[in-house]
């Protein structure tokens, strides 16, 4: 470490010493140099015409030849014999040094971009002197197509060598930094989502090329021909870097996202600069200083536009990035001064060096801070919800894990606003999120006084578990009254609601409660059981529920049934039982209703009321209905071969009724089996009929065109109107068994059944009574004018084979009732 520090200190000292020990000398210039070729001999003959100038800077005018004379004061330093006169490079023109002593030409050095001199001569044009003679002069012949300022210095040979090494070291360091950062930005753009960093990589690369040409270092790492070619395209690299700079800043501040019109203007300017760069690159045309000033003005205008709109949209790191580009602006101003011949190159060495390092470091710091900011944002939103800003389920899990590890008793309140989905649909997601933020801010302000005794600030947080479901953690053992207080506070905030266009958007909540360690011994299970309590719909009129183990058992059973249902369909675990139906007026068999049965290998018999809702919720009801239709029609085919007038009723889920695929299946299978569609009755529940009344009439007409009949099942439970039933015109009304089973003793049910029979008769529909379980019910229904009866008095649902035997016996009797009462 100390060795490197010493080396660095030595370089600095050498650089300083070279600046301090530069020797005094006089500079003369030759007036009125003719445009014809003038040799050094002509100049020596006209030596008296040289005029002294006040500065050590050689001013060269474009298109003119200049002669200068340098008279060093070597005699005042008797201990030094080796001297070097050196100046800045002249990349486009020619520079010749003539060492004259006592009126005689001692040596000559010519420097030009076209000659094959060593790279160090192209960076530092110089001539070495070995003399202490006071009669020494160096004549300089200069010719350049552009205006130029050349700074002349006289140093000892040792000082010059140190200066040369120091300058080369710093040039290499600066270029290495620029190329390295450019390459690094390209790699980041290729391997990350920050594709706009490719523009920054291009910017640094083109800046490095310009810097290489201006300093002449390009001749150190490229062959002369290649270096000459690259040097001739300085304007192209300038335009490329300007376009890359504009596009990087536009992308960095997401100008397109917030101000599309401004982005299009900036993008068009960048494309214009890119086109100009390509023109120079292809045709190798020279660009005037005026054109470069125009491009610089366009660059500044675009940058100011970008930063203006970035300030309006309050983009991050705008101040740092603005400061980071100021050094580049100053460097560009210096480059224009160098091109116009108002500043000498040596005057820019140290300022540019400092500005380059500051520029690169600030840009890299800004990129790092932006990336860190995005990583912090990603980390924050990995534990928080973007829409509401609430801590999410992962944050809740971490907090609960901490409480469990510390053996602290706690309670999770999971709650769900009932109107959230409707508000999203009505007013949009953005408004719904803003509304929730307002409500939760109010909720925190009201609930914090209850939580003041809790030291952990996370217990004051509200967590978002999922879309529309939230949670609150209460630490300690709480009584039911205390829990109810928290529930009332939450409910009160949502009932108060948020004002919207002059009215209050109030809401209701449901709450599920689970306690550690009573209901669960780990965080994940505790959250799960609070959600299970939230999903409890069995306690009507109560807006909060404590976890009940029976809920979990029921949920587990439903999940197991849902997973087993598809397997049951594929492996013939399902059966279609048939329950006979009898015409009450004749005592003859009318037909049968197909009833689905499932005998699970592990769970045993599963009632349709249990697995049908599961099939509907899991999306398996379509396959289930298709199976029932296929099985029922195949049974009907066998039955009608023996009993041609037999009717078959099949239950259809409300979710399947409007499916076109079901109608296609019926048409196909009825045709394949040659069955009469009028002997097939499809039953739908009254609740489905009411809920879907908007499109139900059109759907029923489709089935009627097919020829099948439609029955309304569980009539009396859905509260449908007479006008509605008349409009739809069902073929059958099936009175629910709850009104039939005690008809002989309940006057209320007697009235319902008699009224239904009278109404159906007036509508032209047949009435089917379910749940006929004794002779008295049978006779009373027959007395009321009921058309068809089914129930355990006639027969319970039986397998197809047993039903065929029952049919054979029933058809031998004149009246089925006689067979039943024996």
What features would you describe in this structure?
The chain is of the alpha/beta class. The strands form five sheets. Strands 19-20-22-23-24-25-26-27 form an eight-stranded mixed beta barrel, surrounded by five helices. The chain has a six-stranded antiparallel sheet with strand order 2-1-4-9-6-7, with no helix packed on it. It is elongated. Residues 1-23 have low confidence and may be disordered.
What coarse outline follows from CA principal-axis ratios?
elongated
Query: For the report, how would you describe the main beta sheet?
Result: 8 strands, mixed, barrel
Fraction of residues in H or I helices: 40-55%
Kindly estimate the percentage of residues that lie in beta strands according to DSSP. 15-25%
Give start-end ranges of low-pLDDT stretches.
Answer: 1-23
Average per-residue pLDDT, rounded, comes to 83
Number of helices: 29
Query: What structural class do the secondary elements suggest?
Result: alpha/beta
List the topology elements.
Elements: H1 2-20, E1 25-30, H2 40-45, E2 50-53, E3 57-60, E4 65-72, E5 82-87, E6 94-101, E7 104-112, H3 119-123, E8 126-130, E9 136-143, E10 148-156, H4 157-191, H5 197-215, H6 218-221, H7 224-231, H8 234-252, H9 255-258, H10 260-283, H11 289-312, H12 318-340, H13 345-382, E11 391-392, H14 393-405, E12 410-417, H15 420-427, H16 429-447, E13 462-466, E14 469-475, H17 480-496, E15 498-500, E16 503-505, E17 509-516, H18 523-534, E18 544-546, H19 549-570, E19 574-583, E20 589-600, E21 604-606, H20 608-618, H21 621-642, E22 647-651, H22 660-673, E23 680-685, H23 686-691, H24 693-706, E24 709-715, H25 722-728, E25 732-735, H26 747-763, E26 766-769, H27 775-784, E27 788-789, H28 800-810, H29 816-821
Parallel strand pairs: 11-13, 17-18, 20-22, 22-23, 23-24, 24-25, 25-26, 26-27
Antiparallel strand pairs: 1-2, 1-4, 3-10, 4-9, 5-8, 5-10, 6-7, 6-9, 12-14, 12-17, 13-14, 15-16, 19-20, 19-27, 20-21
Helix pairs in contact: 1-4, 4-5, 4-13, 5-8, 8-10, 8-11, 10-11, 11-12, 12-13, 15-16, 16-17, 19-20, 21-22
């Amino acid at each position: 470490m100390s060795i490197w520090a010493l080396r660095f200190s030595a370089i600095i000292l050498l650089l300083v010493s070279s600046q301090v020990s530069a020797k005094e000398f006089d500079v003369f210039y030759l007036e009125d140099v003719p445009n014809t070729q003038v040799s050094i001999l002509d100049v020596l003959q006209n030596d008296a015409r040289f005029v002294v100038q006040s500065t050590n800077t050689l001013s060269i005018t474009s298109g003119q030849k200049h002669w200068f004379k340098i008279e060093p004061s070597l005699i005042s330093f008797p201990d030094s014999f080796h001297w070097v006169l050196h100046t800045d490079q002249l990349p486009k023109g020619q520079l010749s040094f003539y060492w004259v002593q006592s009126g005689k030409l001692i040596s000559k050095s010519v420097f030009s971009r076209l000659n094959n001199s060593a790279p160090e001569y192209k960076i530092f044009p110089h001539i070495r002197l070995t003399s202490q003679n006071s009669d020494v002069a160096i004549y300089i012949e200069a010719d350049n197509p552009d205006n130029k300022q050349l700074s002349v210095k006289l140093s000892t040979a040792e000082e010059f060598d140190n200066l040369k090494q120091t300058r080369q070291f710093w040039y290499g360091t600066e270029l290495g930094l620029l190329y390295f950062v450019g390459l690094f930005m390209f790699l980041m753009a290729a391997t990350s989502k920050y594709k706009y960093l490719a523009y920054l990589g291009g910017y640094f690369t083109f800046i490095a090329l310009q810097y290489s040409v201006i300093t002449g270092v390009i001749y150190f790492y490229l062959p002369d021909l290649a270096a000459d070619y690259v040097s001739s395209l300085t304007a192209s690299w300038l335009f490329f870097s300007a376009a890359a700079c504009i596009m990087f800043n536009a992308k960095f501040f997401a100008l397109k996202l917030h101000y599309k019109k401004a982005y299009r203007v900036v993008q068009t300017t960048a494309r214009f600069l890119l086109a100009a760069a390509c023109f120079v690159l292809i045709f190798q045309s020279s660009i005037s200083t005026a054109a470069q000033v125009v491009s610089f003005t366009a660059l500044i205008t675009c940058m100011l536009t970008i930063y203006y709109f970035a300030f309006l949209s309050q983009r991050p790191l705008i101040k740092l990035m603005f400061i980071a580009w100021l050094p580049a602006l100053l460097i560009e101003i210096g480059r224009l001064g160098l091109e116009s011949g108002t500043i000498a190159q040596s005057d820019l060495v140290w300022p540019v060096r400092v500005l380059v390092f500051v520029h690169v470091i600030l840009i890299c710091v800004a990129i790092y801070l932006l990336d860190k900011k995005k990583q912090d944002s990603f980390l924050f939103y990995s534990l928080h919800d973007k829409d509401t800003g609430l801590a999410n389920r992962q944050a809740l899990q971490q907090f609960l894990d901490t409480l469990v590890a510390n053996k602290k008793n706690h309670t999770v309140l999971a709650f769900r606003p009932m109107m959230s989905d409707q508000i999203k649909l009505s007013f949009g997601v953005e408004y719904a999120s803003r509304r929730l933020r307002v409500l939760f801010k109010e909720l925190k302000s009201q609930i914090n006084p209850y939580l003041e005794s809790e030291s952990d600030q996370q217990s004051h947080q509200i967590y978002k578990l999922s879309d529309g479901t939230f949670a609150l953690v209460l630490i300690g053992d709480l009584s039911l009254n205390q829990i109810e207080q928290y529930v009332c506070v939450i409910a009160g905030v949502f009932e108060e609601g948020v004002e919207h266009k002059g009215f209050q958007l109030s809401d209701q909540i449901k709450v599920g409660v689970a306690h550690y360690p009573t209901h669960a011994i780990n965080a994940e299970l505790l959250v799960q059981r609070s959600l299970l309590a939230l999903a409890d719909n069995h306690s009507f009129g109560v807006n909060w529920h404590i976890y009940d183990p029976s809920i979990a058992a029921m949920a587990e059973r439903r999940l197991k049934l849902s997973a087993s249902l598809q397997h049951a369909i594929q492996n013939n675990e399902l059966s279609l039982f048939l329950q006979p139906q009898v015409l009450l007026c004749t005592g003859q068999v009318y037909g049968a209703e197909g009833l689905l049965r499932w005998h699970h290998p592990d769970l045993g018999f599963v009632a349709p009321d249990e697995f049908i809702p599961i099939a509907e919720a899991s999306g398996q009801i379509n396959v289930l209905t298709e199976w029932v239709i296929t099985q029922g029609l195949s049974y009907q085919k066998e039955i009608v071969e023996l009993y041609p007038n037999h009717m078959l009723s099949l239950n259809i889920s409300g979710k399947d009724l409007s499916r076109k695929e079901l109608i296609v299946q019926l048409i196909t299978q009825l045709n394949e089996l040659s069955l009469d569609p009028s002997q097939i009755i499809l039953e739908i529940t009254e609740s489905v009929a009411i809920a879907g009344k908007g499109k139900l009439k059109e759907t029923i007409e489709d089935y009627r065109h097919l020829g099948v009949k439609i029955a309304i099942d569980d009539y009396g439970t859905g509260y449908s109107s007479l006008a509605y039933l008349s409009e739809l015109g069902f073929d059958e009304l099936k009175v629910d068994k709850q009104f039939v089973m005690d008809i002989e003793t309940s006057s209320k049910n007697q009235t319902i059944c008699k009224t239904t029979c009278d109404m159906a008769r007036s509508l032209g529909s047949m009435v089917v009574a379910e749940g006929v379980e004794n002779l008295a019910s049978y006779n009373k229904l027959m007395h009321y004018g009921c058309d068809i009866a089914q129930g355990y008095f006639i027969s319970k649902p039986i397998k197809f084979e047993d039903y065929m035997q029952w049919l054979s016996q029933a058809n031998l009797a004149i009246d089925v009732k006689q067979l039943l009462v024996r």
